[in-house]
Amino acid sequence: MQKEPYAPTLNFIDTLPSTLDTLPDFRARKVIGFVFLWMTYNSEYNLHNDDKAKYDDAKFKNYFLKIGCSYCDTNRTKIYDDLLNTQAGERRVIKNIYNPKKDVCVPDSDTAMTCAKVAEAIYTIRCNYLHGDKEMLRDEEQLIVCWAYDVLRGVVSQP
């Protein structure tokens, strides 16, 4: 059972032209799906801005904490391990291209991978991707966007 109003977006992503699936190791459906899924998240966190946060990062984080913590707690180890594996060796930081003071450090253990840390990481990936700092032909760029997509989708796909 998918959460409304995400069902139409998830259905659209699932029915993207099958030619995307033929691109070799490009992970195209998730990379493109992230943009469409983000648009629905964006609409929802603006509609449910109960805390009257002014800035999008705070709006998203507040909203994600309301709907995503159960998923993040249940899947903490997988989320953490998958994030580490988005870069050769291990990913230790997600750089914020606009504000290096807001770089997201990946914790040293999965127990420190809180829902708030996941939200912070996803929002930073979103900013970098949508504002043009991702070279999507690079494997590690695809992997980090796919990681964010998998978490966002997992949150809204749980019952």
Task: Summarize the entry for a quick read.
57% of the residues lie in helices and 3% in strands. It is mostly helical.
Overall body shape = globular
Question: Which class do the helix and strand fractions yield?
Answer: mainly alpha
Helix content range of the residues, please?
Answer: 55-70%
Multimeric status of the protein: single chain
**How many separate domains?**
1
Widest sheet: strand order?
1-2
Order of helices and strands: HHHHEEHH
DSSP summary: helix tally: 6
Q: State the end-to-end distance.
A: 5 Å
> pLDDT under 50 segments (min length 5)?
none
Strand segment tally = 2
Please state the average pLDDT score.
87
State Rg. Answer: 15 Å
Largest beta sheet, briefly?
2 strands, antiparallel
Task: Describe the fold and architecture.
This protein has helices at residues 7-14, 28-47, 56-74, 76-84, 115-130, 139-157, and strands spanning 93-94, 104-105. The chain has 159 residues and is an all-alpha fold. It has one domain (7-13, 25-157). Strands 1-2 form a two-stranded antiparallel ribbon. The radius of gyration is 15 Å and the shape is globular. The mean pLDDT is 87.
